[in-house]
Amino acid sequence: MPQKRTFNIVGISVPKVDGVSLATGSAQFTDDFELRSMLHARMLRSPHAHARIRKIDTSEAARLPGVHGILTYKNVPRVAHTTAGQGHPEPSPYDTFLFDRKVRYVGDAVAAVAADTLQIANQALQLIQVDYEILDPVFDPHQALQKDAPIIHDEPDAYAPLPVIYEPQRNLAAHVDMEIGDVEAGFHQADVLLDNQYSTHYGAHAALETHIVITYLDEQNRLVIRTSTQVPFHVRRIVARVLQQPVSRIRVVKPRIGGAFGGKQEIILEAISGALTLLTRRPVKLQLTREEEFMCTRTRHPQHIRLKSGVKKDGSLTALDLSILMNAGAYGPHALTVVCNSGSKTLPLYRCPNVRFEGNTAYTNLPIGGAYRGYGATQAFFAMGVQMDEMAHAIGMDPPTFHKRNHIRAGEGSPVFQALGEGKKGVEMKLNTCGLDACIDQGARAISWHTKRRRRDKGVRRRGVGMVCLMQGSAIPEIDMAAATITMNDDGSFILLAGATDLGTGSDTVLAQIAAEILSVTTDQIVVHSSDTDFTPFDVGAYASSTTYLSGNAVKHAAEQVRQQILRVASEMLNTEPSMLMLRKGTVMHQKTTTRRVSLADVAHYSLYQKNQFHISATASQHTHISPPPFAAHFAEVEVDTETGEIRVLEYVAAVDCGTAINPALAEGQTEGAIVNGISFALIEEFHFDARGRMLNPNFNYYSIFSARDVPPIKAILVPTHEPTGPFGAKSIAEISINGPLPAISNAVYHAVGIRLRHAPFTPQHVLDALRNQGRQKKL
Amino acid sequence: MQQILPKLTEYFRPRSVATAITLLSKGKGRRVPLAGGTSLALSTSRKITGLLDLSDLKLRYIKESQRSIRIGATAVMKDLCKHAAVDRVAGGVLQQAAHAVGATPTRNLVTVGGNIVQLFFWSSLPVALLALDATIRIQGKSGRRSISAAAFFRSHPKRHLAFHELVTEVVVPKTSSSCGGAFIKFARTHTGYAMLNVACVLERRGRACHNVRLVIGAATALPFRLRKVEDLLENAPLTPSLLEQAKSMTAQIVKPVADMRADPEYRKEVAGVLVKRAIQEAWARAAQTQAVSGGRKRRPTASRKRKSSGGTA
Amino acid sequence: MKITTAINGQKKVLSVEPNDVLLDVLRREGYKGVKEGCRKGTCGACVILLNGKAVNSCLILAVRAAGQQITTIEGLGTPDAPHPLQRTFVDAGAIQCGYCTPGAMLSAKALLDEIPHPSEAQVREALDGNLCRCTGYVKQVQAVLAASRILKR
Question: How many CB atoms lie within 10 A of CB B139?
Fold first, then answer.
């Protein structure tokens, strides 16, 4: 057992450093920034799911007074790229052009107009004449892979920058496979074999702030991009390439972000707005409407999943065979890595000697999939979580016992870690920590599992409880990197320049706590800036549950270096050795005679104005060879209305091992938010399309999400472990809990009424149909 | 994204109904009344050139008389939700319907007049008003008229109201303590658009129901009474088998229009279930009112926060 | 047209078009705490108080604000003198991205003005028009209840 560590500020729920400014409405989001003579941009979008532009005539729109610039495929550089904000070279196919002659889904970009007002821009859109040659669309990923299917990316210049399987000529956006052991032999050893199909649906991030960007030229004629993004440095790199500008001519500034959840790990608007600014030499604002946000940004990739599994009567797993067909939509950002993650974040959770995985991603003429909190694990854990429950049931074992018997433990590795990476092989990893047993025990206790599990309801409304175990990762090993700079001010306070991107998650606060812990000050002595590509050091951005683990370590190392410098200066001032000094509450003191002391302000003043002057400051970088998984056990209690098919979640408990929670309130908040998003996705969120591929419900009226009134009591339990490679023992927490609701609710419904829900969402109609089928089968 | 009301040039805030009607008359249909404004603020109509803000017409009231409750056209949903007299009508059916409208900020805006004149298929208030046999008061250039809710909702109100006419008031008859009622909204979320609305008002005498009024909304463009089911229930002892009959009869009668969220077949079936439940609830409330003399009844949520102000009528 | 309103207790003369929406006018006037999220009255990011009642400013024509009292988040409190709700939202960890926060807090303010000591169910109902995708509402509800206890004292 790791010894109990005591910290001054780590592990304490200090208020968010940006809390007061957000609470008083003074925090600046992208749109809260005004520039003189700013133009307003709007985009013309395709009404067709699949068409070629025969002719496009913008002359009438250009003549409209107040219109200053129009972009179409004719006047922008043709650069194949991906909108996925990933490391370079990206594992996603280069299948996107700023504007193209072809449109591939309803809502695809056709043109952009910048005008004096939004009204004029809207009018101008109506004056653009487009002659479309309508092509046959394909909406089903199975059909898309058939021989005679229409080819969505028939352009010759689409390619994959990494050596991965990419066959656009048959609509295959990505493929991955691996096998460990001998799966067929494993199935032969099994006492029980299960083979089931599952499917998951489209989902919207539904951040309250839609995608928005403001671009302008600064006094050096450089392009400044103020944007609501998770990945400022990737924005700079990709926009530079797409607009054929040197990186040095571009600056990306991230203001406060109004929610992202993966949706803003995507370079959707920045290059278009930037091109309009370069064309007009004027500031330009481009903001999506809620309708565009639903239809034209990114979604959770729908998946068709087949899971075959073998288990012995003693509860040991003999083989797992997971195969997934994923719908990319019209373009392939994250087409490979999301499906890889479906395998790499689920299969290692259970010890199993024989494992096979295959993932295929197909293009269709529907909205585009992308990064979304959970990133493929959400979809695959639905199948995995339900099937584990079914296996436990098949051999007559209580699910908590079954999970405990099979889950990976500290000290163990999994060959899956090595076999599956992100666009390349993974890395070998042995777990330092796994608090899953404690998660299972504490969660089961909190929901009164054993009492509720014995109950069998008979009436119209029946209750049941279900559970699931989960894991995720902490950053992408051998790919992600983060850096941070800390400088000391002359009053002894500090500036923390973090490339890491706070999207509202509270990472600025967590990073400030890490710095404050090392520097022995309070968080109000740390001024945090995140992120500005001109001023903050490099960081890949906020994704893959990386910020606390990776950027946190970068901050910790920078703070340690600054601490050393402080001690060195203080030793000069106090005429002693640095090793004899310690930092306590803003003071450097001698370890033995604590009256020999100087304040941090004295140290700063000395170093800047008095002797041997230098600026106390340090920059540190961090990368990682491993991705320590957080673990969780989720429990749901539901009530099923057997007459209407409605499912009501009565209580939800999530016990999560995220290592050390640097800020417990923020860690709980991540968990609670992810759970509500997950329950809402499982029960009520759904994209509806018409026969021509147009989304019918791009609004909160018909794409409902849960409000405060719809939410059941939720309990987040943090189960501490100490991850030696993380800052102060921390692992990640942001994504893992969104993976729980689909399987936990499905398993609870099974306990309540005996039906297995394998197709999401669990709408009342779907549930009632399943109840009917069950009734029919019983009669037969 | 279209500009809202692009041809709008005039805005009036008349101080009397008479002035309002004169202004409407002169508008020849291009001036429209503005009440809560929740629909108009989203309208891209190029026909509308003028708005008549009804805020200063003093129509935001709820008045109780011996036999009825008069609700001014610009009373908002929130007003209905917290009014004791409204709470007492037929087991709170009107209040439940008002409570089912949107979310708190919309319930602060949506007016009684606006809700019934706009009549979206998911609207809840019309369903309750039909079940309560309310009367709608209308004023126009040729004077005043009153029509029954049944007549008002027989076709879409925008089709039968003249352009110079204003709904000024809704009159809801008070109910006796033996009268119970229930409103059920079936939706994905508490605040979401209804996929079905059901209202039931009935009187309980001994073991049987009388004067049953059952209304179904959000199944079709207009809410309608389930007369055959009402007849089935009239003066019959309320047994489980009768409820089952009411349920299956409803499912046979209701022919829902398409809704992307669920198939018509499914909604038919659920309509039957909701009707059964609405009858049960209404019955239970009527019983409670009768059983506990002095009129202290307990119902979940809405009613509990307020003090009851005196006896029932 | 010119209209006179009181915004956060200060008299304001605004010049508006008849089809201007209050949300846009308030933002134009510098009340950036009023957020745009859907323009359809469904998300609550633009909620303000109109004569003390929480309403969606995207559903209100600006001309209707003539002679009315408007409160935006800027009128609730300042960084130096925050309203108890602003303090409890920060302390409870009820703010993540903060985009829905001004609207949610104003809805909570209207509730506490009407019902100083609400039940949890009443808090949840008062917040039902303010969608939040970050917090799961747990800590928002706690924050409102905590503010009601502070205001009680």
Answer: 19
CA nearest A672 in C: which residue?
A: C136
| Tens of pLDDT, residues A10-57 | 999 999 999 999 999 998 999 999 899 999 999 999 999 999 999 999
Q: Which chains touch C (3 or more CB pairs under 8 A)?
A: A, B
Confidence of residue A4 (pLDDT cuts 50, 70, 90): low
Instruction: Kindly report the backbone phi and psi dihedral angles of residue A774, in degrees, each rounded to the nearest multiple of 5, phi listed first.
Output: -65, -45
**pLDDT over 50 (residue B289):** no
Please give the interface size between B and C, counted as residue pairs whose CB atoms are below 8 Å apart.
86
ipTM: 0.98
CB proximity list for A344: less than 8 A, separation 6 or greater: A416, A417, A420, A421, A426, A473
Q: Is C61 on the interface with B (CB under 8 A)?
A: yes
- Shortest Cα distance, chain C CAs vs residue B303, angstroms: 12
- CB proximity under 8 Å: A 387-416 to B: none
The residues near C93 (Cβ < 8 Å, ≥ 6 apart) are A13, A15, A16, A506, A665, A666, A668, A669, C139
pTM, full prediction:
0.96
C90, A673: Cβ pair inside 8 Å?
A: no
The domains of chain A, with CATH numbers, are 33-135+210-259+264-296 (3.90.1170.50), 299-476+626-779 (3.30.365.10), 481-623 (3.30.365.10)
Q: What domains can you pick out in chain B, each with its CATH number? A: 10-55 (3.30.43), 57-175 (3.30.465.10), 179-289 (3.30.390.50)
- Distance, CA of A595 to CA of A61 (rounded, Å): 77
CATH: 3.30.420.310, 3.30.70.2520, 1.10.10.350, 1.10.150.120. Which one for C84-152?
1.10.150.120
Does the pLDDT at position B311 exceed 60? no
CATH number of this structure's domain C2-75:
3.10.20.30
Tell me the residues of chain A between 208 and 267 that have a Cβ less than 8 Å away from chain C. Answer: 208-210, 256-261
Please return the burial class of A769, using the count of CB atoms within 10 Å of its CB with bins 0-12, 13-18 and 19+.
Answer: middle
Averaged pLDDT for residues C30-56: 97
